[in-house]
Write a structure and sequence with these properties.
mainly alpha
C-alpha cells in the first residue's frame, strides 16, 4: 500500500500541474518503495514469485502503470532509475516477456532480447506500428492514432476508466489519465508530435522537459 501510495501521489501532483523538477526528484523515492515491496514479496513463500506489477492481470491497470513509471523516468531524465524499474520484474515469470516494455528498455539501457508478442495486443498495436514504421511521417501518423485511441481502448480493460465521473466531494481515486509511453517513445525515436501533442492524455510538458535538458547539456558541453 505504501509503494502504490507513492506512485499515486506522483500522478496526482503531476495532474495538478506541480513543477516537474521536484516530481523528477521524487521518482527515486517511488522506486525505493517498490523495491522494498518486491523484497517483502520475496520474503513470503506464498508470494515469492509475484512481481510488484502484475502486468498480465485480467485488467490493464498494472501494465499501464508500469509503462508510465518507466516512461516518467525516461522523460524526467532519471535514466539510472530505468534499470531499477526493469529489475522489479526480474525473477518473475513476467521478466522480458513483453515487446512494448523491452522496446523501451532497449532504447535506454542497451540491447535486450525483444519478444514478438506483448500482453495487451490491441490497445498497443498502433504504438508498435509507430515504433517499427519505415519513415518519420508513418511513425507520427501511427503514434497519433495510438494517442487518440489510448483512453477509449481502456474501456472494459482498466479499472481506472471513467474514474473521473465517479468522483464525489468526499473521495476520488482519480489521479489523471496519461499515455506517458507515447511521449517516451516520441522522445526516444525523435518523432514529430505536432499533430497529437495537444491531446489531453499526452504529457507534452514531460517531453519538453526532456528535450530542454538535452539542449542544456549540449550547450554546456560546447562551452
Amino acid at each position: 500500500m505504501l509503494a502504490w501510495h507513492e506512485w499515486y501521489v506522483f500522478q496526482l501532483k503531476y495532474t495538478a500541474g506541480e513543477d516537474l523538477e521536484p516530481l523528477a526528484d521524487s521518482l527515486e523515492q517511488i522506486v525505493e518503495a517498490l523495491e522494498a515491496y518486491k523484497c517483502a514479496l520475496r520474503a513470503d513463500p506464498e508470494t515469492a514469485d509475484d512481481p510488484p506489477f502484475d502486468i498480465d492481470n485480467d485488467t490493464i491497470d498494472h501494465y499501464a502503470a508500469y509503462l508510465n513509471l518507466l516512461s516518467a523516468c525516461v522523460l524526467l531524465k532519471r535514466d539510472t532509475l530505468v534499470e531499477r524499474v526493469a529489475n522489479l520484474l526480474e525473477g518473475s515469470h513476467l521478466h522480458a516477456q513483453d515487446a512494448v516494455i523491452e522496446e523501451l528498455l532497449t532504447r535506454v539501457t542497451g540491447r535486450r532480447p525483444v519478444p514478438d508478442e506483448w500482453f495487451w495486443e490491441k490497445p498497443y498495436l498502433s504504438l508498435m506500428n509507430a515504433i517499427h514504421a519505415k519513415s518519420n511521417e508513418a511513425s507520427a501518423k501511427a503514434m497519433g492514432n495510438y494517442v487518440r485511441k489510448w483512453y477509449p481502448s481502456m474501456k472494459g480493460r482498466a479499472n481506472f476508466w471513467n474514474m473521473h465521473e465517479e468522483a464525489t466531494p468526499q473521495y476520488t481515486s482519480y489521479v489523471g489519465y496519461w499515455a506517458m509511453c507515447a511521449a517516451a517513445f516520441t522522445y526516444l525515436l525523435g518523432i514529430d508530435d505536432s499533430t497529437y501533442r495537444d491531446n489531453p492524455v499526452y504529457p507534452k510538458d514531460m517531453i519538453d522537459y526532456a528535450s530542454s535538458h538535452d539542449a542544456s547539456r549540449t550547450a554546456a558541453n560546447r562551452n
